[in-house]
Amino acid sequence: MIPRYPDFTDLDLDMRDELDPLLREYNEGLSEFTFAGLYLFRRKHNYRVSRLDRKTIVLSGNDAGQPFFMLPVKIPEPAIVDELLAEHRVMKCVSETKRTVFKAKGYRVTEDRDNFDYLYFRTELANLPGKKFHKKRNLVTGFLNNYSCEGKPLGADNMPAALQILSQWRHNIGEAGDFDETSEALDLFDALRLSGALFYVGGIPAAFVIGEPLVEKLSYVIHYEKADTSYRGIYQFVNKAFASVIPKRYVYVNREQDLGDEGLRQAKLTYRPCSFVKKYRITKE
């Protein structure tokens, strides 16, 4: 049960049925604001949750000693916002719509470019049309010419294979990365209502993708994508292949943020995003 503000408690899996409908109703396309997205990173960001009323949820977090809060659903009255800012100093993951509201009320608004989500047309990722995607098409063609690949929906029957891929991925990169979060996503795949695919190369598990609907009939978000890079072109193939099976009612694929990593930023830009889901930070003037 979520306590009434000012009391907070740890984010718990049992809160899914309570929070998930609210997050989906109010989400403006921010990749963080799904229940799975919050729950899987609850330890990394030290998330705690409170509520002012049925539709006003407050998330408190702390990154390396720096406190912050988020309002994923409705905005409370200014006095509560001021109280939260006094305690946390900054509000993160503010959408375009909420940015306008806070700016009109005299709060200081700054862009958070490192956390902009990258948006792509689903049909472009699935088809890689035109000159701007010729390098990607060449990599996919080379992959298909060299390897026999089969994709299957990710589920209980092939979850051990996905865990095998994840372990190999961690070994290859030589660090933990988001291993813990991805492993938990696989463990709680059904409980968190995730979806995805697993790809075999020559009958050997080689890659998987995990995502979920973000905004109904508009966008689908990719949370995790892991592959054995000994197969040249496998990430380009997986990106294209999975976009091809995302339901056609989704116009956009949200591939989340780059977190200020220049290498990741350049990689995301090479897929020619059609737009960004901009995010802002709010502080007192």
Task: Describe the protein in words.
With 285 residues, the chain is α+β, with helices and mostly antiparallel strands. It folds into two domains: 9-116, Aminopeptidase (3-Layer(aba) Sandwich), CATH 3.40.630; 119-256, 3-Layer(aba) Sandwich (Aminopeptidase), CATH 3.40.630. It has helices spanning 16-26, 35-40, 78-88, 96-104, 122-127, 134-146, 159-173, 179-187, 234-245, 262-269, and strands at residues 9-10, 48-53, 56-63, 66-70, 91-94, 108-111, 117-121, 149-153, 195-201, 204-215, 219-227, 252-254, 275-277, 280-283. Strands 8-9-10-11-12-7-13 form a seven-stranded mixed β-sheet, with helices on both faces. Strands 1-2-3-4 form a four-stranded antiparallel β-sheet, with helices on one face. The model has no long low-confidence stretch (mean pLDDT 97).
